[in-house]
Amino acid sequence: PAQISSCGHLTLDGSQSSGGGGRNLEYGWSLEGQGNDEITAVLNAAINEARVFINGSLMTSGSTYTFKLTVKNFLYSTAMDHSLTVTKARDPLPEVTVNGPREGKVFGMNAFYVTAKAKAASCSSTKALTFAWSVRCTQGDSAEAAKTRVEATTGYKETSTKFALKVDSDALLAGRTYEFTVVVALKANPSTKTTVRTSVVVKWSPLQPGIVGGDRTLGRDSGKLVLDAKSSTVDPDQASGDLYCSWKCEDKSSGQPCQSYLDKKLKTDFPNQCVIEINSLHFEAEKSYLITSQVSKGSRSAQSSIVLTVVAGKPPAVTILTPTLRVVASNRVQLKATYKSSVKPVNVEWVCQQEDDYRYINLSDASLFAGSFEEYRGDKKSVSVKVLKRNVLTSGASYMFKLNVDDGSKVGSSAMVVSVRSGPTSGSFEVSPTTVEQLQEVTMQAPRWVTDSDAYPIKYAFGFLDDSGVFQRWKTQTDSEYKIAVPPGYGANKILTLRVKVRDFFGSVKMMDKNITVNEPSSIDESHVEDLMEEGLKSAEDTGDFSDVVPKLKNFLKLVKGNSKVSESLARKVSNTTVTSLVLAVKSTSLDEEKAKPIFDTFLDVQSAYIEEASELLDGFDKVVKASVKSLDKDTIKETLGWLAGVSAKANHKNDASVSKDIINTYESLADGLLNDVDLGQSAVVTSPANPSVEIKVAHTLLDEAVAADDSSDATELDFGSEMASMCEQRECSPGKICLGCQVKIITYKEDYFNDQSPDKPNILPDKIVSVSINNPETGDEQSITGLTKPFKLKFKTGNPASGQKFECFYYNEGIQKWSSDGITSIVIAGELQCSSTHLTSFSPANTKDNGTQSADKTYQVSFVLSNTTWDEKYSDISDSATVALKDDIIAEVVKAYSNDSSMKSVAFESFQDLNGKVKVTLKMIFSASNTDPAAGLRSSMADGMLGQYAVDPATLDFAQVKAQGEKDEDDISLIIGIVVGVALLVVAIALLMAFLVYRSKQAAKVQSMHSSVPYERSHENKAVSSDHEMTPV
Fold first, then answer.
1. Which is deepest, 143, 241, 816, 987, by most CB within 10 Å?
2. Class of domain 422-522
3. What is the Cα–Cα distance from 504 to 857, expressed in whole angstroms?
């Protein structure tokens, strides 16, 4: 530290010095300036010691001391002189040591931490500390601009009051110097504080140039040559500004500048653009050309070259996607290329070139590969991918791999160069003592490790192998020495295998193991274990640094698990104290893989049966899994699924939206981790017998064919469609990185974790929920898929609904936290529920009430004859395999005929019948009323006399509208009412007629009576009466 408290002591540490070439360094310590014989004697006694302890009583309060470290290697040349000034305070101030990037320098592309290792003075009555970070630019940028930019980043917002400040990769500008200041104060007395500053120089990262396609063959009749120096050139800093390119071409046979073969007097000049096209006729067949691109951006520049071999004719055009690779031996290596050939090649082969500058391996040995993918795609770009297993390539070697594509007449080729980093080497691993009891301390040291000059700093991951042989990491640090109280050993001999993983900046790893014996004590002092836990937790809470307490808690968990000498109360207390500590550890910093993985592993050691508070645990575990994604493998994910089942059962996810979200997010992150080892053309599935409620499937695919959501017989089928398939063609996935295919994540749930508290929540089928998403294969980021013009389709095998019910499609709307059917269409086809969506999310069928066919829908009985399919009695048996196959084919072709017709609601098979020795097909189809010509789709498909592979007679196509049952009932009632009313009216009419006849009859009788009893006389006024006025009875 730059300052120690009035009651503190000083430890000087030079173990991070480098330059020993794999041998021990020699250390010399001295005190500069004022003399102090006692301190000088201590320093002289520490000759060749990397660390020296100075008792604080030898230093005077208020005084400043300057210590000098001189380091020499085995050649006795001075490797480093470094001075440190330390002040002993007059007060019991916090003691703070700030650690930043190695040598105070960092590339602009890199995120990093500035860490304040702090503790309260031993004589302080309170120990809890607070941290406050600030940053300013001291060179090349305005202080206020730097402050504003840094404070806007996520890392600063999360950690500016933590012991470790995270500096995001986009927070600082390259070519500038920044000063970081931390104020560490006593929480109970903020005026008692220590201020420490450190400077960091941000350097420009070198450009990483490349020319798409690498060394290749060019046919002189190919038409054009595309030279692209943009898509394969990486700017790690992603600085603003344009990339500038210039080109040179050299005839390899003469060493002279290229001349056009069309006019040999003219030099072939390439335009100063990053992507250019050159007519292939400018090049001469049977010659090779060296083409060099110089790329520049700001003050940085770099160049790359390819060899162009020109041949007569037009061979297949082969393009290597990554022309140069620099890898670490422990990584898998992808050999990726595309090619275009007018005919299917007779041979597509990867070879390793046997040349002086390159190492050779035999690629005909299938055991070298973790996977491969080959697909000829006609007019599209065809694909060839090989994936070499880890540690197949030798550290420090280079290889040239070439893809040859032979179309039967010509061979096209393209080559790539793979350089393997040397990685850490020359070091050792030492442990002492080698025989201890449980929870006794051992010291592990990993001295003398070196690596490539640009690959520092080296980090050391210390840990042990558990009873399954899995590495359990305690801590990753830049210090090559680590001390810890160890857990129990395994087997009859109680052997514990300790391991160190030595990793450089680029991820090259070397491992070394040491076995020690860890004996069981005759009894376990449970109160001592509890005290150790409480002390560790209290210290971590005071300093905000949980990196030391988490490994100790892991060892306590190992101690109590299955140990008959330990009481259940201790096992329960260890489990819940660990959970509390891990949750606090997550909150104490911004997590990266290095910090998160030990926490992740320790979570899995907690026995779920003892957990008392699961909700907060799940919140912390969600964040830890997300940060650990790059280090997850299939076995770990399977173990995690089983562990999560026990923890989730203790959480109330049905009524707590935050818990539901944590569980779902965790499963999503596990799916991301499963993609780590999946290459193009491969898929992986993880299930756990302990967790039947979820299945995770991932695939790296071109999306040009349907994918099953899981491996079950009733799996949901996912059809991504041509629009999404086009998104997965060869493209630039990130600046300078060309990729092919898409990474698909599919999670099938057997339980509804999706919180929906709405009163109208649909009756979701919980065992059919499917979440679908796509990741960028280069960055691993999830891609947002919305607004598809050619929808994504799911086919749920729901079976037939109960009477009065029907199946509908729903998706989970995260914005309003409820299941919704808005914008998603449903159609029932041959017992399958098909859903069409314009976006990717979580989907499920729901069982809803069937109110009958909608008034706006029309039902048709559809029939036609298969003209070349001879009737067979087996077609009467719907269970016969041939009948099922024919039925499914016919339904599929009908669906295809209406693929662009959203008015078709459903199609269902009814029967096959014998019609004059041929097969008559009868279907039931439902259309919305808006379709005035529902037969149009089939009529068009049958116009050539074929329906898919089946010959049909178009003249037999018949669409007969049938009324729904509800409509028939209404018509019957109307008819009955009409008849009743008609009969009633007829009866009334007859009754009226009869009444009238009776009336007239009576009138006639009365008239007759009048004629017979009274003589007729004309009146005096009417002496004559016309016959027209005489009454005539009727």
1. 143
2. mainly beta
3. 68
Asked if residue 910 lies in contact with residue 861, where contact means CB atoms within 8 angstroms, the answer is: yes
Neighbouring CB atoms inside 10 A of 125's CB total 10
329-354 residues labelled b (16+ CB within 10 A) or e (exposed): bbbbbbbbbbbbbeeebeebebbbee
The mean pLDDT of the chain is: 88
Question: Among 392, 444, 448, 453, which Cα is nearest to 422's?
Answer: 453
Tell me how crowded residue 520 is: count the other CB atoms within 10 A of its CB: 14
CA distance 93 to 91: 6
The DSSP annotation for 826-846 comes to EEEETTEEEEEESS-SEEEEE
Report the pLDDT averaged over residues 142-170: 87
Residue 599 CA to residue 479 CA, distance in Å, equals: 20
**pLDDT confidence of residue 854:** 55
The whole-number average pLDDT for the span 140-144 is 68
End-to-end alpha carbon distance in the chain: 139
Of 636, 642, 633, 632, which is closest to residue 607 (Cα–Cα)? 642
Express each pLDDT in 409-464 by its tens digit. 999 999 999 999 999 998 999 999 999 999 899 999 999 898 888 888 899 999 99
Please confirm whether the linkage preceding 209 is cis (ω < 30° from 0). Answer: no
Residues 547-602 have pLDDT tens digits of 999 999 999 999 998 788 899 999 999 999 999 999 999 999 889 999 999 999 99
Q: Where exactly are the structural domains of the chain?
A: 3-203, 215-327+346-420, 422-522, 524-546+563-677, 700-849, 858-961
Do residues 370 and 332 touch, judged by C-beta distance below 8 A?
yes
Return the CATH fold of 700-849.
Chondroitinase Ac; Chain A, domain 3 (2.60.220)
Residues of the chain with pLDDT > 90, as a percent, come to: 62
Angle between helices 593-605 and 614-627 (to 10 degrees): 140
What is the pLDDT, as a whole number, of residue 902? 73
Yes or no: say if 954 and 942 are a contact pair by the CB < 8 Å rule. Answer: yes
Residue 974 has pLDDT above 70, yes or no: no
Interacting residues of 953 by C-beta distance below 8 A, sequence separation 6+: 864, 865, 867, 945
Longest dimension (CA), the chain: 178
Q: What is the pLDDT of residues 61-71, one digit of tens each?
A: 999 999 999 98
Is residue 629 classed as helix, strand or coil in its secondary structure? helix
- Write out the two tokens for 469: 């042989």
Backbone angles phi, psi at 637, to 5 degrees: -65, -40
Q: How many CA atoms lie within 13 A of 379 on its CB side?
A: 0
Distances (CA, A) of 210 to 232, 926, 1012: 5, 57, 137
Cβ atoms < 10 Å from Cβ of 642:
15
Q: What single letter denotes the amino acid at residue 805?
A: Q
Angstrom distance (rounded) from CA 905 to CA 848: 16
User: Do the two domains 700-849 and 858-961 of this chain adopt the same fold?
Assistant: no
- Tell which residue, 559, 571, 563, has the closest CA to residue 488: 559
As a whole number of angstroms, the distance between CA 396 and CA 327 comes to 10
DSSP 211-250: -TB-EEEEETTSSEEEEESSTT-B-TT--SS--EEEEEEE
Which CATH code is given to the segment(s) 858-961?
Answer: 3.30.70.960
Cα–Cα distance, 67 to 43 (Å, whole number): 9
Q: Mean per-residue pLDDT for 336-365?
A: 94
SS3 278: strand
Alpha-helical segments (H) within 1-65: 37-45
Q: Which two tokens mark 629?
A: 């994604």
Alpha-carbon gap, residue 840 to 837, rounded angstroms: 7
User: For residues 532 and 542, what is the distance between their CA atoms, to the nearest angstrom?
Assistant: 15
Angle subtended at Cα 596 by Cα 591 and Cα 602, rounded to the nearest 5 degrees: 145
For residue 973, the Cα-to-chain-centroid distance in whole angstroms is 61
The pLDDT value recorded for residue 982 is 65
